[in-house]
Design brief:
By secondary structure, the chain is an alpha/beta fold. It is built from twelve helices and 15 strands. The chain has helices spanning 50-63, 75-87, 100-109, 124-138, 153-159, 164-180, 195-208, 223-238, 254-267, 290-300, 319-325, 354-372; strands at residues 24-26, 29-31, 38-42, 67-71, 92-96, 113-116, 142-147, 186-191, 214-215, 245-247, 276-279, 309-313, 328-333, 336-341, 344-350. An eight-stranded parallel beta sheet has the order 8-7-6-5-4-3-10-9. A five-stranded mixed beta sheet has the order 11-12-13-14-15, sandwiched between helices. The two termini are 25 Å apart. It binds iron/sulfur cluster. Residues 280-283, 285-286, 313-315, 317-319 line the site of iron/sulfur cluster (SF4). Keywords: 4Fe-4S, Iron, Iron-sulfur, Isoprene biosynthesis, Metal-binding, Oxidoreductase. Pfam families: GcpE, GcpE_C. Its EC number is 1.17.7.3.
Amino acid sequence: MTVDLGMPAGAAPVLAERRKTRQLQVGPVGVGSESPISVQTMTTTVTADINSTLQQIAELTAAGCDIVRVACPSADDAEALPAIAKKSQIPVIADIHFQPKYVFAAIEAGCAAVRVNPGNIKKFDDKVKEIAHAAKDHGTPIRIGVNAGSLDPRLMEKHGKATPEALAESALWEAGLFAEHDFHDIKISVKHNDPVVMVRAYEILAEQCDYPLHLGVTEAGPAFQGTIKSATAFGALLRQGIGDTIRVSLSAPPVEEIKVGTQILQSLNLRPRKLEIVSCPSCGRAQVDVYKLADEVTAGLEGMEVPLRVAVMGCVVNGPGEAREADLGVASGNGKGQIFVKGEVIKTVPEAQIVETLIEEAMRIAEEMGEGVEEGESPTVTVG
Ligand code: SF4
């Protein structure tokens, strides 16, 4: 028997059309309005430690990372780039500060792109011609990555601080220098730790150029605060169709950044949804421990690749209604759980068996969905 997921044909609705941009390729990953928004992060290993770096990249790849960036502060790191670029399963971007010579090393190493920070590369403007030629010869895109903490001193003097206008002006100035050498394979970021400043800076950029934009709130903080800052800032921009690739910055392992970035895009239907737990906040009517139930179901279904929505509701007041809207759900009460599949009660089980029953049913549905799920569809499971 197959489960009728009742999903509408075609892509899920989104809040805004993407802003039209130039298109570029970071290895096999397209960046620009013609491509899905990609999620990236940065390794935390010493790049020169090739094995550790590749191991971390493998973990990030498994978590859904599309593009990875590695720091390159020393000659040893630069020497490691060819091996890392060759063996990584996802495109590798070299992150260069201070030393222009490493820009050329990264391009020669076969990195999929290079990030430069015009605010702290010595005499960067004088090097643009050479960099543009080398990058063009190798088909290597450049990210102009302006950061509030290392803004070009000339602009700091002009604007007094890292205002949105100063950030945008720095990036557009550098992009203009590359354009003078007929190099346009550029994406831009203008990061600030204040989401309001950051959002405004990207809005200015979006009005004034058609380069793809890499979104990021820099130094966003520990996981909780950083997640909220990134989600609100990215949401404000994605609502306007602004943003072609994203990096969530957290004081937490990079895998967490990928999880948050992926979830932000999934929440806005900008990436096909996978497992989604719809659980109620609980209240005085709850007849089960909703938090525990939701945690156990989430843990039991971790890694599920099909777009499955599971609703976990705390009582029979709203439970059945919500459960009906999902692919799978449970409505709890009187020590029992009514298990719903696509709105129909398929069985009632004792409370102690709710989690295992839901997981069993989810696995069964997932297996049946395996072949027939189109990108953009988002089946649901409800626990209530
Ligand atoms: S589903 Fe029930 S327990 Fe959960 S918040 Fe709503 S009324 Fe409260």
